[in-house]
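Fold it.
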Amino acid sequence: MLNCSVKQIIQVEKVRESNKCKEVASLEIEQKLKRHLGKLVCDRNICPLGVSSWHDITQEKLNHMWAAIEHKFESVDMNDRRDHILGCMNELWNK
């Protein structure tokens, strides 16, 4: 007969992976923005897939992408940086 109890057999050490939320929370605002822009560019519901060039994306779609950015990030001078942020999205889209 084995000399171990049922509790010892059932008890298994649970190992958890690192917490991604803590990693994201510790990022700087620029890193969070770039991460969010990358997600938007890859989302086919927000950024169209059927275009061959960033310049072929309609103004309506660009406004939709911009609204998604404004919804996530609040800043006083956000509209002043619109062209720069959309330029970053263009770079991410081309990768």
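The CA atoms of residues 1 and 9 lie 14 Å apart.
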